[in-house]
Write a structure and sequence with these properties.
By secondary structure, the chain is mainly beta. The chain is built from two helices and nine strands.
């Protein structure tokens, strides 16, 4: 049981990429995107991610899989302005990017993504126990 809880706790952890970039380069990349709010829900047969991307352009949503990593990038629609953008602190409009390391126990080829309003739901089925390599 402890192994299952540990596996679930690390399932939806942010992906860590190692690079030779300087801290200034890394900081510039981080400011180019906002990290969206998300929930990671583990079901019996699938893993479901619910990602909140308000103001995102439906044509600008990209889900990239490089197992075991999943990257979701969503560009905001620049033609609409949000009402809450009145102060200089919120004047910059950033696109969204979420990077997660989800593991090898999922069938990424069967990934399904749906956008309803400002909520992106990504469902990835789990591999069956019979198909697992011992």
């Amino acid at each position: 049981m402890r192994e299952l809880m540990k596996a679930f706790a690390t399932r939806c952890m942010p992906a860590v990429k190692k690079s030779a970039a300087t801290p200034r380069d890394a900081q510039a990349r981080e400011t180019a995107f906002s990290r969206p709010r998300y929930q990671c829900l583990e079901k019996t047969n699938a893993l479901r991610l619910v990602v909140h991307v308000p103001g995102a352009d439906p044509a600008g949503i990209d889900v990239e899989v490089n197992a075991p990593d999943l990257t979701i990038t969503a560009t905001r629609d620049r033609s609409t302005r949000l009402a809450c953008r009145t102060s200089s602190l919120t004047a910059a409009v950033h696109d969204y990017q979420l990077r997660l390391r989800l593991g090898f126990s999922l069938t990424y080829d069967a990934l399904q993504a749906e956008l309803h309003g400002s909520t992106l739901t990504v469902t990835i089925p789990k591999k069956s126990a019979a198909g697992a390599i011992a």
